[in-house]
Amino acid sequence: MHNDSKHIASAFDRDLEAIQAMIMKMGGLVEAAIKDAAQALEERDVELAEKVREADKAIDQLEEDVNEEAARLIALRSPTASDLRTVLTVMKISTNLERCGDYAKNLAKRTGVLVNMRPIEGAAPSIRRMAREVEEMLKLALDAYIQRDVSMANEVRHRDLDVDQMYNALFREFLTYMMEDPRNITACMHLHFIAKNIERMGDHATSIAEQVIYLTTGELPEDARPKGDLTSQAAGAEDL
């Protein structure tokens, strides 16, 4: 009986490692999508934007694969307590990554529209800096998951405040441009939606970090996501 238990445990670990490998692959694709989408916006590169949109299919497929394998693992191995918590956390992480991929795709779609409008001075580089910060947050959150590192996860949560400030500054900047010249309104609205999408990516990276804290300590932080943000629909989420 003891040997059977050890065999079940080792089989569970092997299956979980395979799922975690998919999560890390998915994370790498999402990080690349955020980087490429921001670069396409700044360089007004329609081909690179299209590449981002196409790459989102692989991210969606990986989410399906993770959920399917996680469900199979639960059905086959009947994990309990901490093992079950680990599997459910993996599923939540894949959902957060998939949403980030969707936002990157939406950024790329809007780039295709913005190339036909006159550029708003300084906007694209600012958005790219914001995207780079979110990309780094996402990488840190996934590293925290692999290492079960709570301090690393808390750093992600702290950096999300910086992303929120960057978004608020951009929002005020776009308002100024729109008031100065009505011809800027359409482009600034697209840029605002892009900035909001990136801010939401930061929220999803933070959600992953909070799942790491839950996995490690058994408790979610009191101020865990969602933040109660009611503007996500207005930020072009309907285009995802």
TrEMBL record:
SUPFAM superfamilies: PhoU-like (SSF109755). It is found in: Cytoplasm. Keywords: Coiled coil, Cytoplasm, Phosphate transport, Transport. One of its GO terms (biological process) is intracellular phosphate ion homeostasis. Residues 23-111, 127-212 form the PhoU domain. GO terms for cellular component: cytoplasm. Residues 38-72 form a coiled coil. Plays a role in the regulation of phosphate uptake. Homodimer. Belongs to the PhoU family. This is Phosphate-specific transport system accessory protein PhoU. It comes from Celeribacter persicus.
